């Protein structure tokens, strides 16, 4: 770069999931050299999460991939909360506001997003991808940071850089190396969520693109995630059941919960994945030259997509900070402290309470009185006739953003 104020820095990113890839792309587009490590042989092929709120759309734009995401995905229409028999309780019409919103809510499963991101990363000479590199330790001194990784042959390799960023998920080795194996403050819900991907014609039963079913035991979310008719169904299950018992019980749950009470021959089930849900945030998202982002830094339950959106906004903000350091527009100590403070504050004041309310809304609310007793659902109902209120509702996702002077999106 010709700019005389430019400072060459190298960033090591651990974890080639969506957050790590997006952070790599934003930095590389700003001419920052990136080494991206992952313990696997390639990107994760599981569909997993799929919905990108407007604040996450901005980060996809930063990474230069939004056009491809919009090409491969779609913008959903209505979102409805329902009783277990399918009766609508309240509907948010045109939930993506796609007609007049360039940052409209967009749907693309993470495995398909991963393919888009990987293609862009492989084409960028500023990104060095290293697969089969399991990080076992990290370190730093006054001038550098490093990771120690074990390759596929079992050899230990030390990789040096200026900064290390852990984007290595809920079981982050970077976080564990910083704070210990079990130091991840927060709580685990007394609940087990089962994520399934299934071809089943929900639309024939009047279901919208996104549906939340309110029920004390058979709560679930059903959302269309591809243009060819694949749906994500995530439902609650007895926490005492083992994996084998969850799989064995799935047909009975579908027959009881889903519209039309289908039998296994009525749908094509691609996968069943149970997992426990958490609300947790690390004590710090920055320790010297080492930072944490996305699931490595914080976790929340999946109802409402706050975890995915919050994680992408993390890396968008961190990228702006690192670019500011490289351009010598920001003091490294000060701006990384801002990143740490702001993103943890956003988690505790926005992501945690909103995602917790989303889960309790479907699992611990009486569907018969939901609109009367749930302030959010009452707001959704009123917004149908109040344009000002509707705009306030649509702006909720922007709460996970932060714009400190001179740094960009945090």
TrEMBL record:
Every FAD-binding domain range: 9-351
Transmembrane segments: 12-32
Annotated GO MF terms: FAD binding; oxidoreductase activity
PANTHER family: 3-(3-HYDROXY-PHENYL)PROPIONATE/3-HYDROXYCINNAMIC ACID HYDROXYLASE, BLR0106 PROTEIN
UniProt keyword terms in alphabetical order: FAD, Flavoprotein, Membrane, NAD, Oxidoreductase, Transmembrane, Transmembrane helix
Organism per entry: Coleophoma crateriformis
Keyword Membrane carried by entry: yes
InterPro entries in UniProt: FAD-bd, FAD/NAD-bd_sf, PheA/TfdB_FAD_monoxygenase
Keyword Cell inner membrane: no
The name this protein goes by in its record: FAD protein
Entries under Pfam families matching the protein: FAD_binding_3
């Amino acid at each position: 770069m010709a700019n005389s104020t430019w400072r060459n820095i190298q960033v090591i990113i651990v974890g080639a999931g969506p957050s790590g890839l997006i952070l790599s792309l934003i930095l590389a587009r700003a001419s920052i050299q990136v080494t991206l490590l992952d313990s696997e042989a390639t990107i994760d092929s599981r569909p997993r999460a799929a919905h990108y709120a407007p604040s996450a759309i901005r980060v996809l734009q930063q990474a230069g991939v939004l056009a491809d995401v919009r090409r491969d995905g779609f913008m959903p229409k209505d979102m409805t909360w329902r009783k277990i028999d399918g009766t609508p309780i309240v509907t948010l019409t045109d939930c993506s506001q796609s007609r007049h919103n360039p940052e409209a809510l967009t749907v693309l499963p993470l495995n398909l997003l991963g393919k888009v991101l990987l293609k862009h990363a492989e084409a960028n000479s500023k990104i060095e991808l290293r697969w089969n590199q399991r990080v076992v330790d990290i370190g730093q001194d006054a001038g550098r940071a490093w990771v120690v990784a074990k390759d596929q042959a079992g050899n230990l390799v030390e990789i040096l850089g200026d900064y290390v960023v852990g984007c290595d998920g809920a079981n982050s080795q970077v976080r564990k190396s910083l704070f210990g194996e079990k130091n991840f403050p927060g709580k685990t819900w007394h609940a087990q969520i089962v994520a399934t991907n299934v071809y089943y014609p929900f639309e024939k039963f009047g279901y919208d693109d996104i549906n939340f079913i309110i029920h004390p035991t058979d709560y679930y979310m059903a959302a269309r995630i591809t243009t060819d008719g694949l749906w994500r169904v995530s439902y609650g299950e007895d926490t005492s059941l083992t994996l084998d018992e969850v799989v064995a019980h799935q047909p009975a749950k579908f027959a009881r919960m889903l519209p039309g009470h289908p039998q296994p021959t009525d749908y094509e089930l691609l996968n069943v994945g149970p997992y426990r849900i958490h609300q947790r945030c690390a004590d710090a998202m920055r320790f010297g030259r080492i930072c944490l982002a996305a699931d490595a830094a914080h976790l929340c339950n999946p109802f409402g997509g706050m975890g995915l959106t919050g994680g992408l906004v993390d890396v968008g903000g961190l990228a702006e900070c690192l670019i500011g350091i490289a351009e010598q527009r920001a003091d490294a100590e000060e701006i990384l402290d801002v990143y740490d403070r702001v993103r943890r504050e956003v988690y505790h004041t926005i992501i945690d309470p909103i995602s917790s309310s989303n889960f309790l809304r479907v699992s611990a609310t009486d569907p018969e009185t939901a609109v009367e007793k749930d302030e959010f659902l009452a707001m959704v109902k009123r917004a149908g006739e109040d344009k000002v209120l509707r705009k306030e509702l649509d702006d909720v996702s922007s709460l996970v953003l932060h714009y400190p002077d001179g740094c960009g999106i945090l």
